[in-house]
């Protein structure tokens, strides 16, 4: 199969699970013998632009005509079987869908977040779940400045959502939701249910599972409010006040809360802030964990770190909402805490660290869950299946058009 992957890469200064997923899917497909090429833009390149070009970037968010022409020309010359669209913000825009239509190539789109119904894609405002824009015009997002706390920065996203809603719905043969929880939200918003399929992200086998009881509790991810970092700090303070759990908390990552995390961890024996880990360090840190903590306050569409922990045979403590509810079987592969409640998170961390035998059993169950649902073999099968469905759907549509003209 010949696949063209379309993706706007996120800035390298921040860890991006989405960039990683795209790279891993490309490698997986190529390893299976498929021809895969990439059409991309990089957010890192914005910094090198002139002041005038930088100022024009928001105008490209709803529509980039240069991208449409460039991609359409490439599609006509290379004739891939299918185009797989990932992120289009801020430099690609939904103009990529028009290019696919121009060239008559079916498009598949992985929805990594909630940008189809929420301008910033988080379904969260002021640290709390928010669905005010779901199924309606995104004016509340502009009013509240939901993207980066700025009304001005939110406008291009809100405009793009409004003017391109129908283009997305009609221009994509198959939407790949990364969890059933995400699909439910999108179906309720009015997106075409028949085009929304669930295809979980896969995780490469790390090659080694945890062998001992673990050396630390691990938080691995972006240091942001939505990821539950402040919630974790409050819960860990409660744990420390009652004597701790015998192992330190390791926090690995970068983000807007980094100064706050650094100050909080300074001078403590029970907390280590280690900065941004590379992939190999991430795998090592996970394999040495008593548990991995995922306390997100927003409704995660997936939760890559949860599955990475499962792959290493490590149980997880996660918020009991969003995709985590389908990824983590409470009491079997990990523990779920009440979202947004530090006391509940603290109690689950104490519980998962208190019983080594039970912890080991959860880790083994987590590994089995990974093998059955999130391995590369499973990911490849589902991905190719969805490509074939999209290609067949476009062929049928073309046939209907021919018949309709007779």
Automatic annotation (TrEMBL):
GO terms for molecular function: glycosyltransferase activity. It comes from Streptomyces coeruleorubidus. Gene3D superfamilies: Glycogen Phosphorylase B. The lineage of its organism: Bacteria, Bacillati, Actinomycetota, Actinomycetes, Kitasatosporales. GO terms for biological process: carbohydrate derivative biosynthetic process. This is Glycosyltransferase. Keywords: Glycosyltransferase, Transferase. Residues 17-203 form the Glycosyltransferase subfamily 4-like N-terminal domain.
